[in-house]
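Input record, target 12 of the design panel.
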């Protein structure tokens, strides 16, 4: 596509706006050189890159391009053996570091959300940390060579500082001398021509020997280097020259390293430029609220709610479709109605998309990759070539007819205008017919009514118009497909107050065929307005249904929230019930202990039964959530089976059956009645032998063997306290006096919790940590009351 077309469609203005979003000069350079591509695969690749950059911007807010400079000239100079400046070296190090940072950022984004094209570019960036380190160890952030750059440089600069100190000391003695103070303009030491001097009054020039290096503008002050410091200044000058020579040596060594990595550095510069270029397109797309178009090469395009990106303020979007049933479109309507803007919008959005840029239109818009776009838009009158407007337009059209192909898009503004209406309309029809016959896509604007009839009579050609509000005498800028535009001249004249007699006379001059066409268009417009009203009504109903749907969804959400709140309240109440049951169970156990103390080991059977009954009554029936895997149906369980209580989410063992539908389940230290329908069988109890069942029924007496140690290592504090409670009960009932609890050393949390529990226990007389040979701090020895 030639530059004249791109300028006509104002693509150059789009490029300038997009370039402003580039973070580096490298990226701006690529944006400025951007041109559309006629290759579908290339266009899709470009758009994919822009889309991925848009995703990164949406997820992360952008990409880090700080620190990147245009280092190509410096690198090429180093590659040829040249020595580059400290600032250029610093730019190279910073650019290499910025590329490494950008690479890691994009690859980390790729790990979360695939951005294959951009990640593939980032992966090619070479990491040059040794070169970065070499430069940064020699040059500081301000571009100065560091003392540490070489041992020789450090030694030279140390000598320079010592020499400067000697010179200043000598001069300060002279400045403070009473005999010289009256000869000095000021009591200060300054530098002229890299040598330390003092300001001497002109009249005392002969009394202070030395070299004059400068004088003030008035000539009243001379800056003299006294003879006493000339030798010292000479020494400093020699050291300064040695310093400069050593710096050049360091810069040459660093430049040589840059030259060795020149290929990687230049490749990195190209990759960084391309990445910045891609992100600039994505940032511009976000700025104009543009979307990703769907591309094809079938000659079909459909723009939905598209806008011209250069028009500011409130813009009326347009819908345009061409390439299926119709290949050509004839747009009619009044001046200033937006016909030219429509042509430019269609052309510009195609050029943007073919350049890999998003377009300001709704999602789902489709565009075609044309091999070329041709346009004749605007007033092309040429004074230099002595061409009229008609001649200029015709010259452009002739050029288009020579170059267009069936895969081209042709945009013609006011075709056939600028000459006699009868001849101009005939010529316009012939031109449009020739272009249409080639099979390319055509959009043309016109005032000629003959072209409206042509569009109706020609297959593959569709009429369109820019809507005009006769009541307000102003265009609405809406594009109406399928309806030609009316001239509206008589209606406008009547609205402006032209006498009806004159209007009637003018109407009588219009041919009967033209009146029929105008009447037909008026009828079509009336039908369109009716259909538009029905569409708006349907749209209002759709919005109402959408609102009701949202309200219903909100009500459902509130209901779900309320259900969750009530369920949470039920769980809290269940927890409170369980806590109460535990307290009551503890009271029952305390009663058993008290009875054991009062009546010895021979507790009456009816008291045990009564205590058992109280313990079972203390177990609450908690609110149920939902049935388990058995779907709420009772399963067959036997005493000893391991089961899951579904509404509590806890495992336990069946102690006994309490009826056909209930079972008593042991959950830790607590027993409770549970519906069998709320149980899931985890493991069945193996059948007991006769002697095992007999042994299970034998009660323990005082002299029966009971363990004297409890190992709690690896347990949580809650589980450990439960085991400690049972262990204390067993030891107390067995008349043990001393027991040991093994909790380990660890962090001390388990030990502290257990000892706090022992401190409050009424059957614990005392406790202590184990002695040497007893386990030390990992064991607590308990004496029972």
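The sequence produced for target 12 reads:
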């Amino acid at each position: 596509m030639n530059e004249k077309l791109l300028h006509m469609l104002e693509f150059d203005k789009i490029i300038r706006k997009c370039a402003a979003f580039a973070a580096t000069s490298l990226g701006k350079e690529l944006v400025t050189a951007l041109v559309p591509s006629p290759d579908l695969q290339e266009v899709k690749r470009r758009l994919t890159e822009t889309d991925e950059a848009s995703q990164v911007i949406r997820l992360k807010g952008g990409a880090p391009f700080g620190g990147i400079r245009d280092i190509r000239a410096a690198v090429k100079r180093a590659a040829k053996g040249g020595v580059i400046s400290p600032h250029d070296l610093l730019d190279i190090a910073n650019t290499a570091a910025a590329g490494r940072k950008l690479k890691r950022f994009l690859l980390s984004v790729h790990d979360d959300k695939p951005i294959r094209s951009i990640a593939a570019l980032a992966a090619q960036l070479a990491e040059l940390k040794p070169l970065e380190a070499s430069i940064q160890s020699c040059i500081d952030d301000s571009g100065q060579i560091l003392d540490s750059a070489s041992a020789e440089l450090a030694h030279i600069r140390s000598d320079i500082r010592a020499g400067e100190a000697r010179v200043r000391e000598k001069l300060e003695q002279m400045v403070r001398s009473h005999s010289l103070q009256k000869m000095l303009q000021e009591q200060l030491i300054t530098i002229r021509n890299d040598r330390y001097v003092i300001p001497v009054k002109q009249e005392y020039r002969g009394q202070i020997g030395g070299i004059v290096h400068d004088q003030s503008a008035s000539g009243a002050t001379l800056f003299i280097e006294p003879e006493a410091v000339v030798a010292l200044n000479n020494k400093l000058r020699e050291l300064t020259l040695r310093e400069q020579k050593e710096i050049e040596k360091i810069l040459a060594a660093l430049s040589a390293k840059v030259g060795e990595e020149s290929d990687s550095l230049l490749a990195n510069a190209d990759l960084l430029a391309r990445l910045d270029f891609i992100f600039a397109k994505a940032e511009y797309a976000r700025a104009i609220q543009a979307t990703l178009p769907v591309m094809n090469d079938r000659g079909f395009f459909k723009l939905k709610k598209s806008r011209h990106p250069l028009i500011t303020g409130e813009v009326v979007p347009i819908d345009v479709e061409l390439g299926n049933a119709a290949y050509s479109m004839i747009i009619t309507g009044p001046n200033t109605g937006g016909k030219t803007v429509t042509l430019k919008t269609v052309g510009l959005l195609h050029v943007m998309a073919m350049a890999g840029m998003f377009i300001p239109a709704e999602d789902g818009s489709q565009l075609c990759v044309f091999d070329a776009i041709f346009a004749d838009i605007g007033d092309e009158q040429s004074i230099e070539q002595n061409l009229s407007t008609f001649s200029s337009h015709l010259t452009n059209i002739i050029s288009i007819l020579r170059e267009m192909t069936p895969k081209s898009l042709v945009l013609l503004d006011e075709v056939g205008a600028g000459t006699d209406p009868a001849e101009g309309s005939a010529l316009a029809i012939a031109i449009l017919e020739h272009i249409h016959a080639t099979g390319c896509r055509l959009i043309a604007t016109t005032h000629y009514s003959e072209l409206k009839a042509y569009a109706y009579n020609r297959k593959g050609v569709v009429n369109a118009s820019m809507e005009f509000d006769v009541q307000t005498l102003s265009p609405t800028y809406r594009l109406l497909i399928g309806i030609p535009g009316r001239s509206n001249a008589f209606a406008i004249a009547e609205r402006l107050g032209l006498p009806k007699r004159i209007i009637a006379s003018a109407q009588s001059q219009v041919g009967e065929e033209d009146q029929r066409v105008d009447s037909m268009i008026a009828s079509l417009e009336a039908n369109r307005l009716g259909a538009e009203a029905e569409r708006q009504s349907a749209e209002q109903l759709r919005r109402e249904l959408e609102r009701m749907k949202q309200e219903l969804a909100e009500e459902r959400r509130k209901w779900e929230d309320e259900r969750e709140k009530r369920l949470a309240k039920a769980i809290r109440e269940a927890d409170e019930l369980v806590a109460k049951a535990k307290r009551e169970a503890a009271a029952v156990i305390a009663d058993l202990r008290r009875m054991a103390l009062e009546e010895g080991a021979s507790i009456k059977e009816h008291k045990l039964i009564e205590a058992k009954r109280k313990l079972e009554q203390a177990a609450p029936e908690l609110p149920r959530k939902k049935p388990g895997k058995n779907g709420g149906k009772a399963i067959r369980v036997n005493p000893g089976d391991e089961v899951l209580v579904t509404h509590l989410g806890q495992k336990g063992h069946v102690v006994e059956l309490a009826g056909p539908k209930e079972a008593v389940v042991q959950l830790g230290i607590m027993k409770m009645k549970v519906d069998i329908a709320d149980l899931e069988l985890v493991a069945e109890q193996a059948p007991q032998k006769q002697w095992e069942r007999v042994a299970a029924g034998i009660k323990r007496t005082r002299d029966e063997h009971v363990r004297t140690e409890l190992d709690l290592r690896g347990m949580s504090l809650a589980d450990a306290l439960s085991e400690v409670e049972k262990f204390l009960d067993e030891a107390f009932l067995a008349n043990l006096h001393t027991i040991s609890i093994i909790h380990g050393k660890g962090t001390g949390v388990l030990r502290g919790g257990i000892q706090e529990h022992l401190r409050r226990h009424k059957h614990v007389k005392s406790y202590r940590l184990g002695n040497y040979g007893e386990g030390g701090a990992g064991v607590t020895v308990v004496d029972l009351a």
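The first helix runs from residue 3 to 8.
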